[in-house]
Amino acid sequence: MPERECFGGLLTGYPEVAVDRFDGRCLNASYFLLSHLHSDHMRGLDSAELRSVLQSQPQPRLLLSRQSAALLTSWPRYAALAPHLCPLEVGVPRQLTDRLVVTALPAAHCPGSVMFLLEGGAGGNVLYTGDFRLDGHQLADMKALHDADGHPKPIQALYVDTTFCVPQRRELPTRSRSAESVLRLVTEWLDRAPDNRVNLDCKARYGYEHIFRRLHEATGMRVHVDAEKIQLYERLPDIARCVTPCASETRLHSCRPGSTCLRDGSGGPLRSITLSTMFFFMNQAVDCLEYHLGGERYRVLYSFHASLGQVREMVSYLRPARVVPCVVPPNSSLESVVALLGVASEPRLELQSSRLPTARATHWERRPSEVLQPHRQHTGQRQPPKEIKRIRPKVESPGRRQGHQRSPQSAVGAPEERAGAADTRPAWKSPFDSD
Ligand SMILES: [Zn+2]
Ligand SMILES: [Zn+2]
What we know:
alpha/beta; Metallo-beta-lactamase, Chain A; Rossmann fold; 2 domains; eight-stranded mixed β-sheet; six-stranded mixed β-sheet; 14 helices; disordered C terminus; binds zinc ion; nuclease; Protein artemis; 5'-3' DNA exonuclease activity; exonuclease
C-alpha cells in the first residue's frame, strides 16, 4: 500500500490561508503558501481558477521563498504566476494583516524549500513543515521559533511531514553519506573502461544537486541533464557549473531512462544508479545503503525526508499541543503514526475530512518490474535483498550534545545558546552541508 497524503491544504484557525494545495476549498483562501516545488505540493498551481483568485487580490498573494520564486518562474507553465508571487526572505517574519504573521524557515528538503510558521490567528502559533529533513539542533538555530528569552514559542499545532514515520526508518543515512556511496559506484565503473558511462536516475524534479556537485568535484566531469533542468539550474549558479546540456562531453548523466543519450549505440556501456528511499522500505532492505539489482543496475538509499527519529526530535523540542501528520506511510495507518510520535493528534474526523487517499509518486515512481522482480528472475523465489554495504547511521546521542533538554527524549541543544544565530543561510546549501 503506498503512502497517502492526509493533509488537505487548510490549517485549523487560519481560514484565510491555504498551503501547498491550490484547488477545491483551498481556493476560498486569500493567502497561498507554497513550501517547495515538488509536484505533490503544487496541485492546482497552474490552474485558471487559481489565477482568477489571485487576480482578484490587490497585492501578490502567493507566498514562497525567494529561491523557489526564482525557480518557479523558470518554467513556462507557471510564468503567468509571476505578477502574483510574494517572495519571502527565509527567517524574516512577514506581516500579512493586522494580526497575521508568516515566517518562512529552512526545511532542508530541496533547493528553496521552507517550512511556514503562522502566528496571530485563532489557531495560535502553527508550524507547517512541508517536506523537511532537519535535526533538532537546526530547529534550535531558528530565531523565529523562539521568544525573546530564547525559549521555544508555544506551538498550538504542528503539521508535520511523516513520510517515513515507521519503526524501520528510525534513522536514515545522511545525504552526504549517500553521495559518497554514489561516488564510489561511479568512479569504480568509470575507472574500469574509458567509454563506460553512468546514469543517475532521480525520481523527483530536483533535490539531488548535492550529488551532482560532489561528482563534479571528484571527477571533473559535468552531469548531462535535459533542457528543462538546464533552464532550472540557471537559477542556481553553484549547480549550473556542475551540469551540461551536451551529452557528448561527459560520461555522467542524470537523464530519464530511454533518453536518446542513453540508448545503445550512443555511447559506452552504462551503469544505472537509482536514488530512492521507498524501494529499500518496500523490500525490507532497511540496513542497506546500496542494493544491487543485477547487471549494472544499482539502487542507493537517498532521503530528503526526515527519519522517524528526526520527526520525534522535532515533536520533542517544540512540544506542540497538537500534531497533525501530513502523510500516512506505506503499510501503516494514521493511528500507528500518532502512536509512534507519542502525541495526541488532530481529531480524527478533521484528519480525514475531504481528503481522498492519493498515491504519491513524485519522489519515486514505483516500477513494479523492478520491485522484487530481479530476485524472482534470478532465483525463482523471493530472497532477502543482496546487501552490499551496511549503513551505520550517524546517531548523535543526547549526551553528545550540549545544553539542557526540554524532555527526556529531547536531543537538541539549548536554545539560549543558539537563538542568536541567524537562520539566513543559503536555503539550498543548508540541507546538504548540515547533515
Ligand atoms: Zn518534496
Ligand atoms: Zn544524458
